[in-house]
C-alpha cells in the first residue's frame, strides 16, 4: 500500500433506513467497508459511537455537522471527536444561514467559517465546507456564492469537501472546480447521477458506476488535487445495503489502495 493512501468511507446518511447505528455499522462492515462518515446525531452519544465502531472494526475520520452546532457547542463536539478519533468536520448545508442570492451574506459566512476553522485547527480538527448545488447560482456581483465564501476565508484553515455529483447537477464542471480550488480540497463525496428521466423514486441518483459520471477519471482528479478521503454516498437509495455493496465493489476495481488509517493532517 502507498504511504498516506486515501480513505474510502461510506456516508452513513446513505444507509439511514437500515435501522439503528449498530445495524448501520454492521451493514457497512459486511459490505467490506472499513471507514464511515458519521452525522451530527451520532456525535451526541460519543461513547456509543466509539463502542459500535470498535465492535465492527471501523474508523470514522470525518463527520457532517451544522455550522450552528459546532459554533455554539464547540467544547462538546471537540470532546466527541477526540473520543472517536474524528479529525475532520464538514458543514453539509448553509441554505438556512444566509440569503443564497446575496453577496454580502456569502462574504459574512466565509469570514465566520474561516475564523472557526482557525480555532478548530488549533485543536487538531480540520473544518470545511461541503457543497451541494447551493452556492452555484451567479450573484449580482457576477460571482458564485462558493467563490465569495472561499475568497472571504482566504488565508484561514477552511477546507473543502467536494460533492462532485452535486457540482455536475448544478451545471458546473467538476474537474475545473477541483483544479481551481485544489489548495483547499481535502475530501470528496462520490455519488452518481442517473440518466435523465430515470430513478425518479431515488431523486435521480444511482449506484456509483451505474450513472452518467465517469468515476475512474473523476476519482483520479480528486486524488491528484488533494482529496485524501473519498466518501461513497447516495441521498435516497431504494436498497441501501445493496447500494453500499455494489458501489464499494465498483470503486475497488480502479482504486489502488485500502482505507486503513485516517488522513494525515
Describe what this molecule looks like in 3D.
The longest helix is centred in the middle third of the chain and has 20 residues, at 103-122. Helix content is 40%, strand content 16%. It is built from eleven helices and ten strands. Helix 3 packs parallel to helix 5 (74-84) and helix 6 (103-122) crosses helix 7 (145-152). The protein has an eight-stranded parallel beta barrel. A two-stranded antiparallel sheet has the order 8-9. The radius of gyration is 17 Å and the shape is globular. The protein has helices spanning 21-30, 40-43, 46-55, 67-72, 74-84, 103-122, 145-152, 164-169, 174-180, 215-224, 240-254; strands at 7-11, 35-38, 59-64, 88-91, 126-130, 159-163, 185-190, 192-193, 205-206, 229-232. With 265 residues, the protein is α/β, with parallel strands linked by helices.
Largest sheet: 8 strands, parallel, barrel
Strand order of the largest sheet: 1-2-3-4-5-6-7-10
Task: List how many beta strands DSSP finds.
Answer: 10
Query: What is the averaged pLDDT score?
Result: 93
Helix content: 40-55%
What is the distance, rounded to the nearest whole angstrom, between the alpha carbons of the first and last residues? 19 Å
Structural class: alpha/beta
Beta-strand content estimate: 15-25%
Spans of at least 5 consecutive residues with low confidence? 258-265
Q: What Rg do the Cα atoms give?
A: 17 Å
What overall geometry do the principal axes of the alpha carbons give? globular
- What count of helical segments does DSSP give? 11
Give the SSE order as H and E letters.
EHEHHEHHEHEHEHHEEEHEH
Amino acid at each position: 500500500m502507498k504511504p498516506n493512501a486515501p480513505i474510502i468511507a461510506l456516508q452513513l446518511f446513505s444507509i439511514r433506513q437500515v435501522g439503528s447505528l449498530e445495524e448501520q455499522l454492521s451493514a457497512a462492515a459486511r459490505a467490506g467497508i472499513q471507514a464511515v462518515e458519521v452525522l451530527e446525531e451520532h456525535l451526541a452519544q460519543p461513547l456509543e459511537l466509539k463502542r459500535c465502531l470498535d465492535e465492527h472494526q471501523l474508523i470514522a475520520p470525518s463527520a457532517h455537522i451544522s455550522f450552528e452546532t459546532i459554533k455554539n457547542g464547540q467544547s462538546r463536539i471537540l470532546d466527541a471527536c477526540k473520543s472517536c478519533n474524528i479529525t475532520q468536520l464538514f458543514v453539509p448545508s448553509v441554505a438556512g444561514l444566509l440569503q443564497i442570492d446575496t453577496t454580502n451574506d456569502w462574504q459574512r459566512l466565509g469570514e465566520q467559517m474561516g475564523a472557526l476553522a482557525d480555532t478548530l485547527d488549533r485543536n487538531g480538527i480540520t473544518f470545511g465546507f461541503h457543497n451541494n448545488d447551493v452556492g452555484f447560482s451567479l450573484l449580482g456581483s457576477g460571482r458564485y456564492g462558493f467563490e465569495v465564501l472561499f475568497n472571504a476565508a482566504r488565508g484561514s484553515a477552511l477546507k473543502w469537501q467536494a460533492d462532485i455529483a452535486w457540482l455536475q447537477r448544478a451545471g458546473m464542471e467538476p474537474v475545473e472546480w477541483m483544479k481551481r480550488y485544489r489548495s483547499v480540497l481535502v475530501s470528496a463525496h462520490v455519488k452518481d447521477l442517473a440518466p435523465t428521466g430515470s430513478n425518479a423514486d431515488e431523486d435521480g441518483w444511482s449506484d456509483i458506476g451505474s450513472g452518467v459520471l465517469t468515476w475512474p477519471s473523476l476519482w483520479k482528479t480528486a486524488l491528484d488535487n488533494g482529496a485524501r478521503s473519498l466518501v461513497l454516498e447516495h441521498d435516497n437509495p431504494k436498497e441501501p445495503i445493496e447500494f453500499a455493496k455494489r458501489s464499494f465493489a465498483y470503486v475497488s476495481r480502479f482504486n489502488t489502495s485500502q482505507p486503513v488509517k485516517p488522513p494525515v493532517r
